[in-house]
């Protein structure tokens, strides 16, 4: 039975989540339709542009993304501290960038005096909007609705564009976050449509690499047909801050140099023309986290198959399910998948 979204996403347990959405009726999110010769590549730019714009509004950071032919992956982080720091005017200003807001909110922002009933209504609205601004469900709703409308308008059709609600995975520890980000960034290489990180179009790793080179070309993700609407401000990707623990940092708890070393090593190992290749020089992060090389490569290829709606240590996964009212915990734990010789306790 499908679980309620509130059972799958809990920022107090972990701020990091992997989300996936797929097109319905074999609709094209990107690529070229071989029957008509029509290209849909620009739609991938729609996705990247929109997640950056929404990240600037919501208290949600983008850790990793990959936009594929008929689906996309995001690794998101709920910025709990940012959400707590928002003032009432901040909340209204941000929410009104997404919707029309409310006449009472407009009156308050203009400095007009509110009567008691209006003040009570405003307080209720602000509380509701405040909660939504750190909600992955609302973030995904705003993203998917706009992309669906634009695609249907371009295709001159009506009906569903996405096959259903998005799928989510809670990432409960550092190993799970690292494995998931790597899985997402390496999607084009694993699918055989790119042979290097630099050529992995519409991925966060390509964007991060381009940002390191001042002479690099404009990332493909920013290239899209002329749009006469006023562009929204974009927010950069979440930063690597090198903190040791998942809940003691403001960004991604690794150093980018270490992440780059590991993803380069992993990408070369899983390429189709390098089948069976494992470099003897193990990346630093694998040694620090005591992860076996073969188990890591298996996770980089099959992260979605190894885990269900939760990824982390077995005890943490069971505690998360119990807290959310579930009875069963399905899938391998990160300890079992990445430390195959380590007892589960």
Mean pLDDT comes to: 81
Strand pairing plus helix content: what structural class? Answer: alpha+beta
**Strand order of the biggest β-sheet:** 2-3-1-4-5
- The number of distinct helices, counting runs of at least 4 residues, comes to 15
Structure description:
This protein has 345 residues and is α+β, with helices and mostly antiparallel strands. It has helices at 5-8, 42-57, 80-85, 88-95, 103-109, 116-132, 136-155, 174-185, 187-191, 204-212, 256-270, 284-288, 293-306, 314-323, 334-338, and strands spanning 16-22, 60-67, 71-78, 167-171, 310-311. The protein has a five-stranded mixed sheet, with helices on both faces. A hairpin with a 3-residue loop joins strand 2 (60-67) and strand 3. Helix 2 packs antiparallel against helix 7 (136-155). The protein is globular, with a radius of gyration of 21 Å. It starts with a helix and ends in a 7-residue tail after the last helix. The relative contact order is 0.15.
Descriptors:
single chain; 44% helix; five-stranded mixed sheet; 345 residues; 9% strand; alpha+beta; 15 helices
Question: What is the topology?
Answer:
Blueprint: H1 5-8, E1 16-22, H2 42-57, E2 60-67, E3 71-78, H3 80-85, H4 88-95, H5 103-109, H6 116-132, H7 136-155, E4 167-171, H8 174-185, H9 187-191, H10 204-212, H11 256-270, H12 284-288, H13 293-306, E5 310-311, H14 314-323, H15 334-338
Parallel strand pairs: 4-5
Antiparallel strand pairs: 1-3, 1-4, 2-3
Helix pairs in contact: 2-7, 8-13
